[in-house]
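Standup notes
- DV: blocked on the single-chain target, sequence here:
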Amino acid sequence: MSRQDLRIAQLSFWFMHANEICRRAQAAPGVQLAAVWDSDQARGNRKAAQFGVPFEPELATLLDRDDIDAVSMCAEPARHPDLVEAAAAAGKHVLIEKPIAGDVAGARRIVEAARTHGVQIMPAYNLRHHPLAQRVKQLVDDGAVGEVVRVRKLHGHYLEYEAADYRADRITRAWGDPHDERRDSLFFAGTHVSLWFEWMFGMPESALCVRQTVVDGLPVEDNSTVMFRYPRYVGVSELSETLAAQQPVTEIYGTEGTILQLRGNLPSTRVFNPARTPLLIFNRRDDSWWVPDLPPHFLRHEDQYHSAGVFFEALRREEPVPTSPEAGLRSIAMLVAAERAAATGREVRMDEVVTEAEVMAA
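- DV (later): unblocked, structure below
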């Protein structure tokens, strides 16, 4: 093994995406999965055996190794700030699963760790690297819809109600405290959408939110609707664990046209849709629809376009990672504002949650 390889350690398998990150580390050219750590030693030993690498029970010992360049982190969101601070202080770059923290204070600690120790910290944000999302952003930036007047973004999962993994008692046992660990739809699904809005349009001015639980017995709510107010339009975020075979993913309406995106999240891709394109663009000037040249179907949005590979390649090329911890902070602030709005029944301004400097930070 060449010392030129980028050596990665996996911190925690609490969240399932750790498995895919490890697989990608082992498959990526010039990348080596060197070790794993987990606060749950039984889980850590099991995963170390699965991936054929050593398990290190002591976090400080692993982080003290000078042959590890970066870590991937898939712990409970409430634990991320402590883990990030330790990794950054040891000079390790960090790929951190979303949501990057459970609150704004924790996200601020992560931003400060990156600045203090000069390491790169990248939220694992898959949708940014999906060709559909990238094409939608390009179309909007190029003025394909003119001035935006309304945006609707749907994201979530689909609970197989009869499966043991989604019984209320299993959720409570497997997730510990599902509220503290952000397993409700507003954070669990919502972090994808808040990162998307932040990337596409920047920070909104305020948020309104309604939350509800549809599936009896769940310890957390499974449906949320958030309205993000921008200066000249509203972005609607619909977050759900219950939309079977839901197909629309993104709707952007403007003065000159419309963009409709089909497929790109789990409910929209788990059941094949025979539509010939996942993207439709309407041009108001000639009242016509047109479709870009894109692959007709994606089985899963993570399968081919994964943030881990982007992170590895940026580090190998010594380039900046595309998604900053500041973006992660802003995405958390949007969700916290939505939580406050739901709890109080009022519109919550973003400047109640973050400072102007944090909104404007790169």
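- Follow-up: The chain has two domains: 6-124, 128-304+333-352.
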